[in-house]
Amino acid sequence: MKRVHVYIVLISVIFLLGSCKKYLDINYDPNEPTSVTEKLLLPAIESHFAYEVAGGFAVRTSSLWTKHLAYAVAGPHEGNYSLNANDANNLWRFSSYTTVMQSCNQMIALADENQNPAYRAIGKIILVWNMSIITDAYGDAPFSDAFKGSEGVVKPVYDSQKDIYIRMQTLLDEAITDTDVSGGENPRSVDFIYGGVMENWKRLARTLKARLYLRLSSAPGNSAVTQANLALQALDAGAINSNSLMPIFEYLDQPNAENPWYQYTIDGKWSTAIRPSIYYINFLESTDDPRLSVQVDSVALGVNRGKYVGVTNDAAPTALTNYSSIGSFYSAADAPLYMLIYAEVAFIRAEAEFLKAGRSVNANVIAAYNAGIAASMEMYEITSYDDYTVENVLSTNPTVAYEQILTQKYIANYLQFESYNDYRRTNIPNLPLNNEVYPGETLDIAPRVNMVPKRFPYPSSERSYNPENIPSNVPAGFIEAVQVPVWWDSQP
Amino acid sequence: MRKNLGLIITLLMYGLSGFSQTRDVTGQILDDKGAPVQYATIAEAGTRNVVTADANGKFSIKTTSNPRLTVSAAGFVSQTLAVLGNTLNITLKDSNSQLDEVVVTALGIGKERRTLGYSVQTINPDQIRSSQEPNLVNALAGKIAGVQINNSGGQAGSSSRIIIRGNTSLTGNNQPLFVIDGIPVDNSSERGIDEDTESALFNGYGANRAIDIDPNTIESTTVLKGAAATALYGSRGAFGVILITTKKGKVSSERKFPRVTFSSSASFDEAFTDGYQTTYLQGLVGLYKNGFSLADGGYSQAAGGATQTSGSWGPHKDSVSQQVMDSIGMPVVIDPRKQFYRTGKVLNNSITLSGGSDKTTYSLTYSNLTQEGIVINNDFKRNSIKASVSSQISQRFYSTTSINYINSKNNRFSEGNGARSYLYSLNFQPINFDAEKAYNERGNYAWTASNNFTTGFNNPYWLVNNNSTPSIVDRIILSNESTAEILPWLKLTNRVGLDTYTDEQREQVNINTISVPNGRMYDALSKRRQINNDIMLIAEKNLGRDWKLSGLIGHNVNTRTFSRRTVRGLGLSIPEFFDITNAEITEALQDDTRRRLLGVYASATAEYKNYLFLNATARNDWSSTLPPGDNSFFYPSISLGFVFSEALKLESTAFPYGKLRVSYAQAGNDAPEYFTSQTFIQANPNDGTRGNIAFPFNGINAFRANGLLANNNLKPEIVTEVEVGADLRFFNNRLGLDVSYYDKVSKSQVLDQEIAASSGYLERVTNAGELSNKGIEVVLTGSPVKSKSFQWDFQVNFAKNTYKLKSIAEGVDNIFLGGFTSPQIRADSKFGYGVIWGVGYRRNEQGQIVIGDDGLPLPSTELGPIGNATPDWTAGFRNTFRYKGLGFSVLFDAREGGDILNFDMFYSVFYGTAKITEQRNTNFVWQGVNESDGKPNTKSVFRNQDYWRNFYSAEIFENFIEDGSFIKLREITLSYALPQKLVSKTKLEGLSFYVTGRNLWIKSDFSYKDPEGNLLGNTNAQGFYHAVTPGTRGITVGLNVNF
User: Fold this and answer.
1) Of A236, B409, B768, B961, whose CB is crowded by the most CB atoms within 10 A?
2) How many CB atoms lie within 10 A of CB B2?
3) Which residues does chain A have within 8 Å of residue B623's beta carbon, measured at their own beta carbons?
4) Minimal Cα–Cα distance from A32 to chain B, Å?
């Protein structure tokens, strides 16, 4: 009798062990899906790209270096050219490689599988767009060997910037081809940028091609004329041709749905000290530029009420409310983010025609130059700018004219990372160092480097986890690193 | 099916219950002078059947038909004897050792200490209670060698970290398993929201849930430190085990009414407010500013305007210029920190009813603890009711059931780096600005005259009245243990337990709070549940005169689930109204995890001639967190105890006892949940600082790639530990020395290893890393004086652990533990565990600080180690004196090493409130060599405002590394028990009073005095002191009554 009970217990234990396979097969996260569709990936890609990359750290930093903005707190900070490997980490590590670009790759793979050329095209365009910001900021970077962590490649080798540019053009060509392939699913409303209008994506792809061709105008081994011709070919094939076709991302005046500039500089969550610089405001004021009142808000209250007052990269001597903010055109809660502007297309054409003509001014150059100013003014709905056009008529002196083209591009590309690229490529405009002082004050923190930084230092995550592949010409210390130009920047 | 296992087994055992004989044994335990021995332990050898004698030495125990009882008591030589009749009067021989006491070991098996091949340390309940800590973990501090406690801060309801023998796992939580009466219970720290949505860096952590355990219910606490001791707990015990045995009822058939024990105490706590200057007023470059805007009576001594400053860089309070006094009069000086903190109070009342018939005993404890923290509106309240019934259902079947309901309420405030942390403004408040008055008159108005709620500081009084994170925990711990005696030498025991709680946490941020100007809230419900069942077949048999064999086989099922539902509201419409309907935007967040574990285990012990003891265990686990089909893992242990003094006949009065221990053990550990399959995560664009876009956005949902690369080839991690030790007694047992040395290697750690992001992933799940902890633990006990009326005992605990990270993974030499990207706390292969990593001084090859032309040290060009938060050694020293009914005990607790990154000081130097800035406007020569010529620096620098702001607190974080070493007078207690003669004239059985002081004296070089404190709570990232409520010292008075 006793034994029987013992056996029952033992048998039931054994029986229970036997069924343990199913009992233990529960290791699936109920909060995270294991598979998604292109339709779910695309809005993630676009929103992350807009908020974190096109409107994120890269342009926040470069705008301090191009002096569009300044950071009015005691440094050292990016405004004093202090940008260490930690600071440069998030853009590379979180935003680009593991979120936007990785999701693009996954969407491209899914679109291949499901025969959805529209998604594949958009995936490639945003992949290239993001990669161009990475290579322009950091130089050589993993690309052909990147995104292979699941295959065991945890230390990707770096591609030269030259090879990255070649591959980016190829990918854009593939994307353009895909926009013409019919069939498959159209993203429509989940495409925040163009609502699934593939013609617009095609135009954007060609615009990016032109931008990237022109970037190499003085890259070692490349001829300015060849690059200009390639850029013009891309534009002539049908690029963005009006302000209404600019890629923008619309935000909402609701908590945690607001414009990135608003969240960064206006609403007080982070800092309200990032404002238009003294230099830039003075520059626009001295040229009577009607765009001042759109790009910059006048001071709303206090002693400077109604005036345009800029800040420097140092603690302001009086309350921050006594200084101008970024114009609400860019920084209202529900302002859209301008990811690329139409005026740039005109200025690319102006410069390309100028270079094509052996660095001289002709009618094509003048027409494109004027179209650029017009596009910029009209983007802000400024209608009376004739005085300004007259004042800034394109010179026939090639040196002066070139400077005018790029200066106008610099103004138009307010809060665009592109203006930092153009500055490095051409050294125009001739920007003074960030060592201005407030009237009657002294400088607390001098710039950490005696030049406008030439690049971002490689991020700390790569220094920690992939150090052997980082190009040896870029030292680990950020002060030395930011003085090393990227490949296409062969300007002295 | 499986869930019903416990029930089936229990039912089966009821069926078995008619087959064996039990009996009641009652008796009294006396010392050799005939006086009763109080609270002796009577254990049936080889079983969990343990009772405690009462204050008069009387006891009653239900036993098997042929029991062997072991009787032990502190200060007496234990005896084990076979019992024939139903009464047993035992005389215990005086001793100073605890050689033969019965200690509770893994799975609740009572064993004589002398038979163990590994180190075990116990704490008696008086030592837990006397500390008067609401959090049980804090009550263990200084009392056990090799156990390190760190309290995270002085708010009521703060968490405490406990680690045993160093950090065993690189990224696991390293917290030991808490087991109450054989049932594993949860000790998590809950947050109402996930780390990605609101980082702990800006909020701090809540309590670890061991805070729910009422110390009044504890009978004894045993700490199992090494792998050999915990092997039977399997993966749950890899970080050590805290075994708690609760009080049970005692037979009291001679009494009409239950025995009543009442204890009551009141404590008063005071904050340490060291570290701040109280001599310099608000202002800049020595000129005074009073903190108000012009419209509100603002004043600025500087020409041209009344803009205010956050800095305390104004004039010395005793040299305010005539100009200022003429304008606004003499500024009134306060000490803002002293003004802000109130006297904390703890009221603790507990009542226990207990008793029993010869078949059934019961115990019922209700306790209420009400703590008002040192911060206004910060409180912690705990109500606990615990009932336990033990029943002899039939002669060979007995069963104990316990139920414990706990309700813990806590209202706490955000700590950490951010405007919503009250410390983030209080610590920088100038001494001329009365923030309390400003709050009462103007609301959220601080000393930067800002009232646009976008910049500057929140008024600290505003924060503690308008920002809080209340939490209400309802917890139930249920357990049943039933034993059937199948044969005289064979028993079947089943133990089933449920530990479940809900934690309702809310966040309430009122409108007009700087950094969240529109207000926000969340309402979160977290639920945790753990069900555990062990069924064991236990055998014990004597084989001849010399040999005894015992052993068990068992089966374990464990399931743990967690779920959290958070509704978050952003942008409030109506102030001070924290209902979700008041939010402009709501977000729903959820988090769920579930895991299961099955285990089978066996243990066998062979004893030879009561001096050689060999124990072997083996366990196999199957875990749901490992890949299906490859989720099984096995690990063995073997330990040997050898009482060489007896075997070699060495015993003498000078050397009565000597034992050697040696053990080898492995312990496996499974993985966190959901590491085996690749997933996608919801889109959440953000800038890593404060901004983000919430999804669904504009009605569209989205998912993106997950940065965590899952691994479906995951293996369990294995800890291998070798321990050797000796237990030596001298001079008639007046002096005892217990030494343990261990060498613990953790291999193939389950890591979410950070990898180069260019791989497409942030981190990958992998088995990698090898780390070792080697250490020594010494427990020295003694009784220098021992007479009938006076006794002096002491105990010294000392532990030193050396951590070595042998490898992490190919090409990776560090793992991030917590903090910011810089500074951060990390594990580093070169520099150890808990390395503080950031910008240090630039040093030459000789290690000298390099000084620039301006006479100031240069910052290092690369980030590097600037400190190490892991202590070198810890020690406790307790002295107890007893003269008749009068007792006096003193506990010192010491920690050597363990650097602290004082991130508060980084800011308070900048704002000029730090104590060291009192040295402003003096000259100083930095020790170091010149960058230019390599010669010793002689250039003197003038330490003006500019020096402190633009050099000292600008970049070099090494300036803020402080030594966390301390010696604390952790407890000092004076107690008095009324003489039995006096008491017996009343209806009372006993009456005692005591006064305890806590932290009354601290010796440390830390700026804020008490170096215990950590923003990152009980996580692996220790040493991060930032906007943490300071530690406290206090006094408790109390009484205990029995009747």
Assistant:
1) B961
2) 16
3) 24
4) 6
B190-234: pLDDT as tens digits: 888 887 777 777 777 778 898 999 988 888 899 998 888 888 887
Between residues 171 and 230 of chain B, which touch chain A (CB distance below 8 Å)?
A: none
Helix (H, G, I), strand (E, B) or coil at A64: helix
Check A147 against B702: CB less than 8 A apart: no
> In the structure, what pLDDT confidence band is assigned to residue B558 with cuts at 50, 70 and 90?
very high
- The mean pLDDT of B530-543, rounded to a whole number, is 92
Q: Which of residues 969-998 of B touch A (CB under 8 A)?
A: none
Q: Is any Cβ of chain A less than 8 angstroms from the Cβ of B281?
A: no
Which residues between 511 and 530 in chain B have a beta carbon less than 8 angstroms from any beta carbon of chain A? 514-518, 520
Q: Do A105 and B689 touch (CB under 8 A)?
A: no
At residue A457, φ and ψ (nearest 5 deg) are -70, 155
pLDDT tens for B947-966 read 998 788 877 889 999 999 99
Task: Tell me the average pLDDT across A142-152.
Answer: 96
pLDDT value for A8: 58
Closest CA to B189 of B1019, B1037, B1027: B1019
- Among A24, A131, A150, A325, the residue to mutate for chain B (most B Cβ within 10 A): A24
Surface-to-core class of residue B91, CB atoms within 10 Å of its CB (0-12 exposed, 13-18 middle, 19+ buried): middle
Out of B307, B705, B756, the one facing A103 most closely (by C-beta) is B705
Percent of chain B at pLDDT > 90 equals 49
C-alpha dist (Å) from residue B611 to B42, B115, B478, B546, B656: 22, 8, 39, 10, 14
Of B487, B760, B762, Cβ closest to residue A147: B760
Q: Using CA atoms, how far apart are residues B103 and B112, in angstroms rounded to an integer? A: 6
Report in angstroms the alpha-carbon separations of B419 from B206, B425, B571.
19, 7, 17
SS3 (DSSP) at A265: helix
Contact between residue A367 and residue A273 where contact means Cβ atoms under 8 Å apart: no
DSSP per-residue string spanning B803-847: EEEEE-BTTB-EEEEEE-SSSEEEEETTTEEEEEEE--B-B-TTS
Q: Does B863 touch chain A (CB under 8 A)?
A: yes
Look at strands B966-977 and B990-998 and give their pairing: antiparallel
In this structure, which amino acid lies at residue B958? E
CA distance B920 to B908: 13
Mean local confidence (pLDDT), B279-296? 87
Helices (H) and strands (E) in chain A, counts: 21, 4
Distance CA(A477)–CA(A467), nearest Å, equals 13
Q: Please give the single-letter amino acid code of residue A478.
A: F
Rounded to the nearest 10 degrees, the angle between the axes of helix A398-412 and helix A342-356 is 160
**What ipTM goes with this model?**
0.93
Letter for the amino acid at A241? N
- What residues of chain B lie within 8 A of the CB of A106, using their CB? 705
pLDDT at A11 over 60: no
Q: How far, CA to CA in Å, does B552 sit from each of A463, B49, B541, B601, B618? A: 53, 16, 12, 8, 11
Average pLDDT over residues B919-936: 93
pLDDT digits (tens, 9 = 90+) for A261-312: 999 999 877 788 899 999 999 999 999 999 999 999 999 988 899 999 999 9
Tokens representing residue B781 in the block: 């006990």
What are the start-end ranges of the E strands in B139-234? 147-151, 160-164, 177-180, 183-185, 218-224
Mean of all residue pLDDT scores within chain B: 87
Q: How confident is the model at residue B625 (pLDDT cuts 50, 70, 90)?
A: very high
Which pLDDT value is given to residue B29?
A: 84
How is residue B589 written in tokens?
Answer: 């967040």
Mean pLDDT score across all residues of chain A: 92
B631 token code pair? 């989720």
Pick the residue of B758, B906, B945 with the most A CBs within 10 A to test the interface with A by mutation.
Answer: B758
